[in-house]
Amino acid sequence: MNRLAASRATRWIIGLLVGAFFVVPMLSTFLYTLRDGDGFSLVHWAALADPAKAALYRPIWVGLGNSLVLAVVTVAIVLFLLAPTMILVHLRFPRLRPAFEFLVLLPISIPAIVLVVGLAPVYQQIGRMLGTGAWTLAFAYGITVLPFAYRAIQAAIDAVDIRTLAEAARTLGSGWGTVLLGVIAPNLRSGLLAASLISVAVVLGEFTIASLLNRQVFQTALVVVKNTDGYAAAVFTLLALAFAFALLIVIGFAGRARTGKARP
Questions:
Q1: 133-153 pLDDT, tens digit each
Q2: Does residue 85 surpass a pLDDT of 90?
Q3: Which distant-in-sequence residues (6+ apart) come within 8 Å of 130 by Cβ?
Q4: How many CA atoms lie less than 13 Å away from 67 in the CB half-sphere?
Q5: Are 181 and 56 a contacting pair, CB within 8 Å?
Q6: How is residue 52 annotated by DSSP?
Q7: Exposed e or buried b for every residue in 232-242, given b needs 16+ CB within 10 A?
Q8: Residue 82 to residue 59: CA distance in whole angstroms
Q9: Whole-number Cα distances in Å, 67 to 76, 131, 152, 231
Q10: Whole-angstrom distance, CA of residue 76 vs CA of residue 87
Q11: What is the CA 154 to chain-centroid distance, rounded?
Q12: d(Cα 195, Cα 52) in Å, to the nearest integer?
């Protein structure tokens, strides 16, 4: 018997406290969206489909569209730039891994306001060359998601002997494109999926960089709508949280499926 292990009662207390930390604010927000005078109703939820308020909610839909485009571009950066670089470092330059890991994890220690100050001159040049569209934020978001995506992909790389897989495929005459896409990528699919979904969650929740660089995304649109209709902002916030939780559930099922297939 492990005397250092927490008792069942202690685990339940910790679980309840952590659960309350998430549930209480969400439940309070949900009850707030149901307020209708002295009673409760779904009038504020039904208002989302009211044509008379379409103009009021237009910033939300525009911001949501921009955020989804940003999510796609950011995921593309993770899958087509970060993941191949990590595989290359693992296979050909293993001595560079500590320095590469330090650079990739560095953004998590830099406050967003500092990151924006450093990126402001860069975005002035980007604005002259590519315009000031919201999608250009993907370059900054690509830096922001690096630590989270790196951990997810590296865990998958460490769980699979991709060096042996690559050497076997090369011995059989496969080119590096086939090795990367047909041999290594399928074995890293759980890590790549987790990195993609985490990147989407980070992009949909990021506010500081978009606000300070004057780009309209979902989070900045929520602030604009909140100034005129606080109930609508609360409803959209709950929907965004529900979407983020759905992503986490998908990650959990993907990892569980990968573990189940790995068992004999």
A1: 778 888 888 888 999 999 989
A2: yes
A3: 136
A4: 26
A5: no
A6: G
A7: bbbbbbbebbe
A8: 32
A9: 14, 17, 22, 21
A10: 16
A11: 16
A12: 40
* pLDDT (mean) for 19-29: 88
In the block, tokens 């922001």 appear at 144
- In sequence order, what are the residues at sequence separation of 6 or more whose Cβ sits closer than 8 angstroms to the Cβ of residue 146? 82, 104, 105, 107
The dihedrals phi and psi of 40, each to the nearest 5 degrees, come to: -130, 145
Token pair of 180 as six digits: 């990367």
Sequence letter at residue 235: V
pTM: 0.78
Residue 38's SS3 state is coil
Q: Which amino acid is at 130?
A: L
Fill in the amino acid letter for 254.
A
Q: Which residues, in sequence order, are bridge partners of residue 39? A: 36
Q: How much of the chain, in percent, has pLDDT values that exceed 70?
A: 93
The residues pairing with 40 across neighbouring beta strands, listed in sequence order, are 35
Contact 140, 119 (CB under 8 A): yes
Element (H, E) at 209: helix 208-212
